[in-house]
Design a protein that fits this description.
This protein is mainly alpha-helical. It is built from seven helices and two strands; from the N terminus they run E-H-H-H-H-H-H-H-E. The longest helix has 51 residues, at 78-128. The N and C termini lie close together (11 Å).
């Protein structure tokens, strides 16, 4: 069990630190290369699974995620990353599938009847401007659901199992302590990530590929930060299903 000095425990997450994390290692060039390859191969799921496995080790290894040391990507351990990343990948897929089933019909009904209502009230102009009304609603719902999925993904990363990830009581505790933290830092991280990706496109398009790797590594680090802050706020630590997994805890 690895403990973090209380003086090193952050009180809030840092999207800037997350995006800079990959550069903290002397081997940052290769880290960017491997994370870029993972981002580019996410479409066939292998890259996404491997990245989640790398993020899992970030969380399992150390609770002091804001230190200057960086955990290098070890391509020789690709099999380990994939084996550890398969659980959060499956949980993420299951949650997305469940949310889509539960919300697809209600959202469609709201949009259709809402547009018809605006059409009756304001005629063709109401129908034309309906998207301006419903897009923010869709974004708000999507944001809330994304935050709601995070505790289940974190549990699957540390428990390394499927069913133990769906602890609703723990998820509610996590969201109650971390909702506004994740909302604010997540928005900032998203804006900074878009800026990095756009800057990469400006470099004749070539810079877009390493930008994807930087953003992907930053996303894994944000998960690690959120779990650390949750623990620092008195949150219940996740107990790994496998006793050999190192649990990050804060005294």
């Amino acid at each position: 069990m690895i403990n973090a000095d209380n003086s090193s425990v952050p009180t809030s997450s840092s999207p800037v630190a997350a995006l800079r994390y990959i550069f903290n290692s002397p081997n940052w060039i290769m880290n960017v290369v491997w994370m870029s390859l993972a981002a580019l191969s996410s479409g066939i799921f292998v890259g996404q699974i491997a990245a989640l496995g790398y993020g899992t080790e970030l969380i399992q290894r150390n609770a002091a995620f804001r230190r200057s040391e960086s955990m290098d990507v070890d391509i020789d351990r690709l099999g380990d990353y994939i084996s550890k990343g398969i659980w959060p990948f499956l949980v993420h897929f299951a949650i997305g599938f469940l949310f889509s089933i539960l919300l697809a019909l209600p959202l469609a009904a709201i949009f259709v009847f809402g547009a018809l209502g605006l059409g009756v009230a304001a005629g063709e102009a109401g129908i034309a401007f309906a998207p301006l009304f419903f897009i923010p609603i869709a974004l708000a719902i999507s944001t809330v659901l994304s935050i709601a999925s995070i505790p289940f993904i974190l549990r699957s990363m540390i428990c390394q199992d499927f069913l133990p990830a769906f602890d609703v009581g723990w998820a509610l505790e996590f969201v109650s302590k971390m909702f506004w933290e994740i909302l604010v830092s997540g928005i900032i991280f998203g804006i900074l990530s878009m800026a990095i990706l756009f800057a990469g496109l400006l470099l004749c398009g070539v810079g877009y590929f390493p930008a994807c790797g930087i953003v992907l590594a930053g996303a894994m680090h944000m998960l690690a930060q959120w779990y650390e802050i949750f623990l620092s706020r008195g949150g219940t630590p996740i107990t790994p299903s496998d006793s050999s997994i190192v649990e990050a805890s804060i005294l």
